Structure to design on (344 residues):
């Protein structure tokens, strides 16, 4: 089976890091110090080399550092030079962990990446995590627990919040990707990779906007055909749309049109973080539902009736216990318990 074109980015065999002089940590950016700490403590099993972007030497000597992935976390004025070096040593992918890079400078970095055939995640992103590979190439906090759920988010702060919640609730991840504004590798390409990733069984997306609707819908449809995809979209109302445009620099568009497009693609939309967390918890479990039948177990009549109403709104069918199963349960329950549509 052919490898996905983003394999060097998300499943690198070797990594080179441009983060300034490791002998002078005080001269490094806060992003660099945190990223180095996470890379070293994660336990990545492949070669992990640190290069100074100001290093000297011939291209032949630099070629000895040839690697799959270059991780760059330097001051804005040094990013282009480091990316050029990554291209000359034939890196196939690059990650730029930074903040405050403007659109014009980001476009310059994109041009350098295209010229060298590099798949570039960044700038202005917080990186990614691949727990199975023990790879924490991010500033998002400690490495997440391993699982089969993938998280793709256009907000670094919300990604961190989700990871904090997941750590407390026993939810693990196959992949966590924090996409900031101005990134070259976009959400459509990440979804395309995850659709093909055997370690990913389901995908959760926090979305503020998209740049290429056709590409996004094509990748979303392919992913949703292969595994469950849950989407929380910001900017549903005018004020939120304006804020999302300011934050991510992406086009939000009509919410009704987007809602219809998601349904057509086969993705499931949630409206709040409570729903997103609930979906993540369900999807991280080992077993996923395969039909529309739902059993409701409750310790009170009211909550059960409300759940039954909502199930009906969603087009679900209330499952009923077979008579032998009901007869077996009856002696173990209160005489007031019902064993028909609701078990309570």
């Amino acid at each position: 089976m052919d490898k996905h074109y983003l394999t060097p980015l998300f499943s690198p065999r070797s990594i080179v890091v441009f983060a300034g002089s490791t002998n002078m940590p005080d001269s490094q950016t806060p992003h660099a110090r945190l990223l180095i700490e996470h890379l070293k403590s994660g336990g990545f099993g492949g070669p992990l080399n640190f290069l100074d972007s100001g290093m000297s030497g011939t291209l032949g000597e630099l070629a000895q550092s040839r690697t799959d992935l270059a991780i760059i976390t330097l001051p804005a004025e040094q990013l282009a030079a480091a990316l050029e070096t990554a291209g000359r040593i034939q890196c196939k992918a690059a990650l730029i962990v930074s903040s405050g890079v403007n659109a014009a400078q980001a476009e310059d970095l994109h041009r350098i990446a295209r010229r060298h055939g590099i798949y570039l995640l960044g700038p202005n992103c917080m990186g990614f995590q691949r727990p199975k590979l023990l790879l924490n190439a991010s500033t998002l906090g400690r490495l997440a627990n391993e699982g089969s759920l993938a998280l793709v988010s256009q907000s670094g702060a919300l990604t961190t919040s989700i990871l904090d919640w997941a750590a407390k609730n026993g939810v693990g991840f196959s992949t966590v990707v924090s996409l900031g504004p101005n990134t070259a590798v976009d959400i459509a390409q990440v979804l395309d990779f995850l659709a093909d990733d055997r370690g990913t069984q389901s995908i959760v997306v926090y979305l503020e906007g998209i740049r290429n609707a056709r590409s996004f819908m094509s990748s979303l449809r392919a992913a949703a055909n292969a595994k469950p995809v849950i989407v929380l979209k910001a900017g549903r109302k005018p004020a939120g749309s304006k804020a999302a445009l300011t934050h991510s620099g992406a086009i939000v568009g009509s919410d009704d049109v987007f809602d219809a497009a998601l349904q057509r693609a086969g993705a499931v939309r949630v409206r709040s973080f409570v729903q997103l967390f609930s979906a993540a918890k369900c999807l991280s479990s080992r077993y996923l539902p395969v039909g529309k039948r739902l059993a409701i177990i409750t310790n009170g009549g009211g909550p059960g009736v409300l759940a039954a109403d909502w199930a009906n709104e969603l087009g679900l069918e209330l499952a009923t216990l077979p008579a032998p199963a009901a007869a077996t349960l009856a002696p173990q329950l209160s005489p007031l318990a019902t064993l028909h549509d609701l078990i309570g």
